[in-house]
Amino acid sequence: MEPKAGVYRHWKGRHYRLLCLATHTETGERLVVYQALYGERACWVRPLAMWQESVTRDGVTMPRFAYVCERETQLGDT
Asked: Distance from the CA of 2 to the CA of which of 8, 18, 29, 60 falls in 20 to 30 A?
């Protein structure tokens, strides 16, 4: 299932806004276009498969990116 647009928390704690999904022109690979909600608010691209995978840290398995809410304004302080 493809993720929906909105705000996500990276497993390290920072928040990002998923802007859209894209397709690589040469390989057809699905990509996630997302923006940091801190600092210079840089935009990034990551393979969808990597966006959706889980990571394990200190014996705890969690999603790499976990959906938080629809809008940045719902976060309070970012």
From this structure: 60
Beta carbons within 8 Å of 14's beta carbon, 6+ residues apart: 36, 37, 38
Classify the C-alpha dihedral 63-4-71-50 as positive or negative.
positive
Name the pairing type of β-strands 15-23 and 54-57.
unpaired
Q: Residue 50: left if φ>0, alpha if ψ -120 to 50, beta else—which one?
A: alpha
Question: How far apart (Å, rounded) are the C-alpha atoms in residues 76 and 78?
Answer: 6
Q: Which two tokens stand for residue 5?
A: 């647009």
Could you tell me which residues are beta bridge partners of residue 32? 21, 46
pLDDT tens, residue by residue, 59-68: 999 999 999 9
Claim: this prediction has a pTM higher than 0.90 = no
